[in-house]
Amino acid sequence: MFPLERGNVSINWKKPFDISIAYAQVQGRWVTCRSPYTVLSGHTEKELLLATSDLRQRAKRDRVRADLSAERLAAHMSKTGVHEELLRQRWRDLEGKKVLSIIAGQSGHSQTLGGVVPLLSTEVEAAATAAKLAALSHELRNEVVKSSGRVKK
């Protein structure tokens, strides 16, 4: 339940790997809500919570009020200086999506998750992807250090 000015609204994400589309129960009916920010497409609720937490921590550090508007969250999630934990969560979510796809395939159901059936990685592909994520993480960390003006340790 999410509090509103005059009551609470139930929110549901039917596609757990795409928070750009949510469903809200309003006066007993489920209404489709689409985000105007395409950057949210393909991201999970956990990633959104991590980005929100990161913005709150930055605001606390800078002693300012946290701006948690949808526009600010979308901008934060699309920046190159996104927090490393967000990348790790993205990796875990993609791995979970593959596992759920395998389970769906073994059960005989042809369902997909988020409209896309993820391809299974070989060990070589997984190692290459992990190396790319590590390099990206290193680049992002350097960008964050540059943009914050802190001295790299």
Structure, described:
By secondary structure, the protein is an alpha+beta fold. It has one domain. Helix content is 50%, strand content 14%. It is built from 4 helices and 4 strands; from the N terminus they run E-E-E-E-H-H-H-H. The chain has a 4-stranded antiparallel beta sheet, with no helix packed on it. Strand 1 (2-4) and strand 2 form a beta hairpin. Helix 1 runs antiparallel to helix 3 (84-106). The longest helix is centred in the last third of the chain and has 26 residues, at 123-148. The radius of gyration is 18 Å and the shape is flat. The termini are far apart. The model has no long low-confidence stretch (mean pLDDT 74).
Keywords for this entry:
153 residues; four-stranded antiparallel beta sheet; single chain; 4 strands; 4 helices; alpha+beta
Indicate the percent of residues in helices.
Answer: 40-55%
Structural class: alpha+beta
Rg: 18 Å
Q: Report the β-strand fraction as a percent range.
A: 5-15%
Q: What is the averaged pLDDT score?
A: 74
The total beta strand count reads 4
Q: Main beta sheet, described?
A: 4 strands, antiparallel
For the largest beta sheet, what order do the strands appear in spatially? 1-2-3-4
The stretches of 5 or more residues where confidence is low (pLDDT under 50) are: none
How many distinct domains? 1
User: Helical segment tally?
Assistant: 4
The helix/strand order is: EEEEHHHH
Question: What oligomeric arrangement do these chains adopt?
Answer: single chain
Task: Summarize the entry for a quick read.
With about 150 residues, this protein is an alpha+beta fold. About 50% of the residues lie in helices and about 15% in strands.
